Amino acid sequence: CTMDDPEQKLISNGPKLVEVLVNILENGVRYSPPGGVLELSSMVRNSKVILTIMDQGPGFSEVVDPFARFAQGQPSPHTKDKGYGLGLTIAREYTHLMGGLIAARNHPQGGAEFTLQLPCPAFAQEGA
């Protein structure tokens, strides 16, 4: 886990943001091999907090839109746990309701990469 500023504030609904992150992290754990690593990073760019989560799973080989309702890839060979294909749909909806954006892609080095952009409070102006 790496952060530009561990004290950075963002605008969100705390419980809903936790649910978004848990959905993404659970998928990463489910699809990454034993001993695999999940990477979480945050930075601030253009008044947005950018959260990036990368896993070491297979990525989205046959899934066109991982946020589509009931979209699922091949079952993970690393666990018997199965999902319903709704977690990422819910993550997208909650992120949008918080004024943010979420995207997913295959990382060039393998695995899935999720990027969330959430608004951060306006930076205080000096002397204000």
What's the short story on this structure?
The chain is an alpha+beta fold and 128 residues long. The chain is 23% helix and 23% strand. It has 2 helices and 5 strands.
What topology does this entry show?
Elements: E1 2-3, H1 14-31, E2 39-45, E3 48-54, H2 87-97, E4 101-106, E5 112-119
Parallel strand pairs: 1-2
Antiparallel strand pairs: 2-3, 3-5, 4-5
Explain how this protein is built.
- Strand 4 (101-106) and strand 5 (112-119) form a beta hairpin.
- The protein is of the alpha+beta class and 128 residues long.
- The chain is globular and about 45 Å long.
- A 5-stranded mixed sheet has the order 1-2-3-5-4.
- The chain has helices spanning 14-31, 87-97; strands at residues 2-3, 39-45, 48-54, 101-106, 112-119.
- The protein has 2 helices and 5 strands.
- Helix 1 (14-31) runs antiparallel to helix 2 (87-97).
